[in-house]
Amino acid sequence: STLCFFGWFLFFSNKPMSRFRALARNALVRMAPKNVPYEIIKEPSLPLSAMRAVPDHVVRPPYAQVPPIPPTDSDTGSVPVLSKEEIESLKRACEITKKALDFVGTLIKPGVRADDLDKHVHEFIVSHNAYPSPLGYRGFPKSICTSVNNIICHGIPDQRALKEGDIVNVDVTSYIGGFHGDSSRTFLVGNVDEAGRKLVEAASECLEAAVAICGPGVPFSEIGKVINKHATARGFVVCREFIGHGIGRVFHCPPQIFHYPVAIPGVMTANTAFTIEPCINEFSRHMFVWKQDGWTAATTDHGRSAQFEHTVLITDTGHEILV
């Protein structure tokens, strides 16, 4: 999940540049392709349904308890090294997330509302005595993220029905036994045009290429190099505002995983876990966050975006994809 994104706010925090960014955004919109074979999502389809209830017996993460304990996410500090017992607990959470993603894949078709997907995945996760990690995280109102077409990530499931030709990313995280397991996939809705299919294929390939190099001693900076090289070769671009992260007892923790070339310190070590989750854009890398909800990230030029995510465990001899 990119629900905690340590980098994107820097893009928006420089107020003296806001007028320049507005002009640049308008220019990108004017340059955007016309008559695209998909619907451009410009606003939420309201009203949102109420936050879903979680049975009392399901153990909640600290930020979802009553009273809530603010998230302890941090982009600084040491990378948590997991014991054998902790790794098994992480694997248990990831297995539920994998099953939930497999399940949601069977539901996706034209006419199904994003809110329906949220309802069914919520019920699936709590039926496994787990908690849907996004629910209530820093105020997020739903149990999953659904990001359609030009929405990059953090889309809030709403009343819009999926349409023939859409692409939709579903981001799922499950919490059980004190650990979070995080993953996402982009699905095709019915018959998607060739350019859309190529984008989704490229996003999956970027993730798999990055995971393939993971192992003890490998610099974290290599991940971004591999992803950027593959995306560029396929004719697409990497969105730079969202990063992967360490995961375990805390939803988001060190290390930070950048999906584009950047000089960052640190190498991978055995018994640590993190997510790799590049957002691959069809045209420009630039984005903005909807003012309506403060969460939904959309491409500035209305091009599509696709994303896949794995939780990866570094082992003594290489890596293991947990979900």
Question: What can you see in these coordinates?
Answer:
- The protein is of the alpha+beta class and 323 residues long.
- The chain has six helices and 15 strands.
- The strands form five sheets. Strands 1, 2, 4 and 5 form a four-stranded antiparallel β-sheet that branches. A three-stranded antiparallel β-sheet has the order 3-12-11, with no helix packed on it. The chain has a three-stranded antiparallel β-sheet with strand order 6-10-13, covered by helices on one side.
- Strand 4 and strand 5 form a beta hairpin.
- The chain is globular and about 55 Å long.
- 47% of the residues are buried.
- About 3% of the residues have low confidence.
Question: How is this fold's topology laid out?
Answer:
Blueprint: H1 8-12, H2 18-31, H3 84-105, H4 114-127, E1 131-132, E2 145-148, E3 151-153, E4 167-176, E5 179-188, H5 194-212, H6 221-233, E6 237-238, E7 244-246, E8 253-257, E9 272-276, E10 279-281, E11 287-289, E12 297-299, E13 305-307, E14 310-314, E15 319-321
Antiparallel strand pairs: 1-4, 2-4, 3-12, 4-5, 6-10, 7-8, 9-14, 10-13, 11-12, 14-15
Helix pairs in contact: 3-4, 5-6
Count of helical regions: 6
What is the averaged pLDDT score? 93
Task: Return Rg in Å.
Answer: 19 Å
Give the beta-strand count.
Answer: 15
Q: In terms of quaternary structure, what is this? A: single chain
Given the C-alpha coordinates, what overall shape results? globular
Q: Spans of 5+ residues with little confidence (pLDDT < 50)?
A: 5-14
Helix-strand makeup class: alpha+beta
Termini separation comes to 12 Å
Query: Strand share of the residues?
Result: 15-25%
SSE string, helix = H, strand = E?
Answer: HHHHEEEEEHHEEEEEEEEEE
**Biggest sheet statistics:** 4 strands, antiparallel
Specify the helix fraction band.
25-40%
